[in-house]
Specification:
CATH class of the largest domain: Alpha Beta
Strand order of the largest sheet: 3-2-1-4-5-6
Distance between the termini: 54 Å
Order of helices and strands: EHEHEHEHHEHEEHEHEHHHHHH
Number of strands: 9
Largest sheet: 6 strands, parallel
CATH superfamily of the largest domain: NAD(P)-binding Rossmann-like Domain
Shape: globular
Structural class: alpha/beta
CATH topology of the largest domain: Rossmann fold
Bound molecules: NADPH dihydro-nicotinamide-adenine-dinucleotide phosphate
Strand content: 5-15%
Number of domains: 2
Length: 296
């Protein structure tokens, strides 16, 4: 069984890593807060490492899933860093929803040591991760992806080679900007309908049989806004980061993007208002506060 390392046992990282605990791999995990790695290892029969270097030693594939590309880059250096543990010929697969420029810089640094890099952000949420049915969007060269496939297949159902390093991050950011637009526009529309006396269940019943429907209207709003549950599965802080990446990417490509830029401003303000622990769908609460009513 070849060893494989997974670093970053957060809301989505932990259920992804669980799929690597299978007969094909000898899983070793590392997490910034060591108690989480120890608990994960004990519950899943994996080993846990004290440092990124220790986790990476002897592994052909090292997977990271951290908040941003910046945290990934910060794990590379020092005596305990990934570069101290990763061998020539090994691969870093970064499942963070990262930014293309930092991923390219990280790939270049790794290439100097003969180490491959793939940006491989995922979509499908915590539910998709638990079910092993994530979509994985990969940037990097095809031969490197081929070698990483056995690992990606454990938690991914649809694995798409998107282009060179940074392409996976770019597609993920554009997808996230669309998710953010859907949340905000449906929140505004539903609040107006609610104020006009239309029941939210009735509004969603119509919208979900019509051309405005989306994952937000079909799943997120019925489960979270109507039920006022707002489970914390994907942080508002992270979608704020994603929309910023999209806004930056569109500016770099010289695409006039007023909608994406405004969405980035709205989510940055919502993040500032609701704090670090709020879930992304809770952005609707800002619309409700400024609109002076609740969607009900
Ligand atoms: P969480 O905030 O739940 O977890 C973040 C993880 O990163 C934790 O393991 C945390 O360690 C670690 N971490 C944070 N800062 C540092 C640091 N400076 N150095 C080392 N480790 C650090 O995030 P998620 O798991 O939700 O998200 C991870 C990535 O996946 C993000 O890029 C996100 O956008 C993306 N994603 C998330 C989805 C979701 O549904 N949650 C869906 C699709 C993509 P510690 O335990 O010590 O805090």
């Amino acid at each position: 069984m070849p060893p494989i390392a997974f670093l970053g046992l957060g809301a989505i990282g932990a259920p992804m890593a669980k799929h690597l605990k299978n007969p094909d791999f000898d899983l070793v995990v590392w997490n910034r807060t060591p108690s989480k790695a120890a608990a994960f290892a004990a519950a899943n029969g994996a080993r846990h490492a004290k440092t990124p270097a220790e986790a990476a030693r002897g592994c052909q594939i090292v997977i990271t899933c951290l908040p941003t590309s910046r945290e990934v880059a910060s794990l590379l250096d020092g005596p305990d860093g990934l570069l101290a543990g990763m061998a020539n010929g090994s691969i870093l697969v970064d499942c963070t929803s990262g930014d293309p420029a930092t991923s390219r810089a990280t790939a270049a640094r790794l290439a100097e040591k003969g180490i491959g890099f793939l940006d491989a952000p995922v979509s499908g949420g915590v539910v998709g991760a638990e079910a092993g049915k994530l979509t994985v969007m990969v940037g990097g060269d095809a031969a490197t992806l081929e070698r990483a496939m056995p690992a990606l297949n454990t938690f991914g159902e649809k694995i798409v080679h998107c282009g060179p390093v940074g392409a996976g991050d770019a597609i993920k950011a554009v997808n996230q900007a669309m998710l953010a637009v859907h949340i905000w526009s449906l929140g505004e529309g539903m609040l107006a309908l609610s104020k006009a006396g239309v029941k939210p269940e009735v509004a969603l019943d119509v919208i979900n049989a019509s051309s405005g429907r989306s994952n937000v209207s079909m799943n997120l709003f019925p489960q979270r806004v109507i039920g006022r549950a707002f489970p914390r599965t994907f942080k508002l802080a992270l979608i704020d980061k994603d929309v910023r990446i999209a806004a930056q990417f569109l500016r770099e490509q010289n695409v006039p993007s007023p909608l994406t830029q405004l969405t980035a401003e709205l989510f940055a303000a919502a993040h500032a208002e609701l704090g670090e622990e709020a879930d992304h769908v809770e952005a609707v609460k800002v619309i409700e506060r400024t609109g002076g009513a609740e969607i009900k």
